[in-house]
């Protein structure tokens, strides 16, 4: 969730899409009486792009009124709506971790996949869809270098073990902070220590921190927000970074000396879901089916720098645009998909793996 918030702030700050204001009315009675849909679309330019790529075409084709809400719905808010029988929103963005919780706590309605066309459903990446949500966007953590420090005529690090190799590849480094537990330099540390991609989970937490011990003296800063890493790369204060692919892509498109290496990228995603007790569940099912079609996701991706969950969308856009997507098949072949179920697993004491990582990090980073 933290990664999504950082990337949304990035989108809001960097996009030049000029659209109208997003309505924020919240009357459940209105939604029920009109039979219209109320859809949360995150915020800012992201929501505006959703209106152009999803809402307007859906209304035109289906004749169903959609009231867009320029906001996100947190797990806490979702739980409160459901527990108080006051669900007023029909469709919400669902993080990968929220989907895991939905399966445990009954937050979401099951998706009716019977209404999907086979070729559309086959195009949606398996890991982005479940019984309770359908994939919308895919993004990644990548190894990024300053191409002035590492020009094409010289060797560049292309794996996390090479990132850790400060003798062969000297330079100023930065990694993401582990302060949130569910996100951090965890997979990167294990890959650097020789763990194969297929053997990352369940994580050996002791081995994670033993690997981090080796790189710790060479880290200029443990960054904690997308805007922070983007500024660091822009100002050339670091030579090597673990960074969001979108942040790095924007800088590269602006002419910054940024080289993105997709090998061993760590991929995550966001989906769409229907809150349990939605007033307009049937129309909500239709809306999600519509907006996860290839043509709709292709339209959205050309407004927002995310990868589409429906890979058929990549065939409907220019190749140079498709190649900026974390979900491009050429990149997925060498990427690692985050195992959000492992992060959410609880031990006998009720502590999740994410909690254990956060607690361990808070002690370790002060040593």
Description:
With 367 residues, the protein is of the alpha/beta class. Helix content is 41%, strand content 16%. It has 17 helices and 10 strands. The chain has helices at 2-14, 28-34, 44-62, 75-83, 96-105, 118-123, 160-164, 186-192, 205-215, 226-234, 245-253, 281-291, 294-301, 319-322, 329-332, 340-344, 353-364, and strands at 37-40, 66-69, 92-95, 134-146, 173-176, 219-223, 240-244, 258-273, 307-308, 336-337. Strands 3, 4, 5, 6, 7, 8, 9 and 10 form an 8-stranded mixed sheet that branches. A two-stranded parallel ribbon has the order 1-2. Helix 3 links the parallel strand 1 and strand 2 (66-69). Helix 3 (44-62) runs antiparallel to helix 13 (294-301) and helix 8 crosses helix 9. The chain is globular and about 65 Å long. The model is unreliable at 10-34 (pLDDT under 50).
Oligomer: single chain
Head-to-tail CA distance between termini: 28 Å
Structural class: alpha/beta
Beta-strand proportion = 15-25%
Q: Can you give the mean pLDDT?
A: 90
Give the number of helices: 17
